[in-house]
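> call design_seq(struct)
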């Protein structure tokens, strides 16, 4: 009987989940809109029911050995999500326990960027690396940090919240309640805020003026930039500058061999990568210059699903 792990990737907009084998093949997946659920309990129950439907749909010739979850502000130590600014629920959410109640199987919960880091380690560009970072640039910004081949969880299990380092003390208001957090500038949401500010500041002709804020997306911004839209190009330059400076600081702390960018905003490719690379090196302490690779993730498929499932295999195998 084939053994499979469930990988669940909880994001601020979508939650996706799939059945994954040991080799990282995502055999089948489904998704729901995270913000469709006012109550967290209803959200978890919907996930449970959807996964059970995937089981029935694929017959009985396989066995699920466990569930792995990547989620914002998720704590590996207790399996809870706590005060995630990009999710619609507040307080301490006992995700791991509720999923165990639904399946009576081992459940492992971690930060969504940690899950992406595991995917990069096993199936992407970090294969063979012992020290690297992964940044997930989606609705917010998460980071997974690997030191000496192990994920860094920290004292209370919540290490890796690079999206909430303050880059401008009097800057933009963040969902966490503070001002000037990195993710308010460097994320799909952050770059939209940058575009709005640039459209107000400049009178340049731009196709972006006809797009409502809630219809704006990183993909549409990238298309506009590649077509020569001045506002879109400037938005990526500004975003790359802030990210590059933040990464120069991160390198001074962690000395990673490589930093990988993942998530929707990273799909803009060189529009984001080139200014980030320039400003990272420009602001790097001299002893670190030229020693850290910066690149877009090479993981194919959903790195959150693959990494969450990989966590199951890693922990079950010991």
């Amino acid at each position: 009987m084939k053994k499979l792990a469930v990988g669940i990737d909880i994001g601020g907009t979508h939650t996706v989940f799939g059945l994954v084998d040991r080799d990282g093949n995502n055999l089948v997946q489904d998704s729901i809109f995270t913000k469709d659920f006012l109550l967290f309990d209803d959200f978890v129950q919907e996930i449970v029911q959807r996964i059970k439907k995937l089981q029935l749909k694929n017959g009985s010739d396989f066995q699920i050995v466990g569930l792995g979850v990547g989620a914002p502000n998720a704590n590996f130590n207790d399996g809870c999500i706590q005060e995630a600014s990009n999710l619609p629920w507040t307080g301490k959410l006992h995700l791991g326990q509720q999923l165990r109640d639904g399946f009576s199987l081992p459940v492992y919960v971690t930060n969504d960027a940690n899950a992406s880091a595991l995917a990069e380690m096993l199936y992407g560009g970090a294969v063979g690396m012992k020290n690297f970072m992964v940044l997930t640039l989606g609705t917010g910004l998460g980071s997974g940090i690997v030191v000496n081949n192990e994920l860094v969880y920290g004292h209370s299990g919540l290490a890796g919240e690079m999206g909430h380092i303050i880059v401008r003390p009097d800057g933009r208001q963040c969902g966490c309640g503070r001002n000037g957090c990195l993710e308010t500038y460097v994320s799909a949401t952050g770059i939209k805020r940058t575009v709005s500010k640039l459209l107000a500041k400049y009178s340049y002709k731009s196709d972006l003026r006809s797009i409502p804020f809630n219809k704006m997306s990183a993909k549409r911004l990238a298309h506009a930039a590649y077509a020569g839209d001045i506002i879109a190009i400037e938005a990526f330059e500004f975003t790359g500058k802030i990210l590059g400076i933040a990464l120069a600081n991160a390198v001074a702390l962690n000395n990673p061999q490589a930093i990988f960018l993942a998530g929707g905003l990273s799909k803009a490719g060189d529009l984001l990568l080139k200014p980030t690379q320039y400003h990272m090196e420009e602001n790097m302490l001299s002893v670190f210059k030229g020693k850290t690779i910066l690149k877009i993730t090479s993981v194919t498929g959903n790195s959150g699903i693959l990494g969450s499932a990989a966590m199951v295999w890693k922990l079950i195998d010991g």
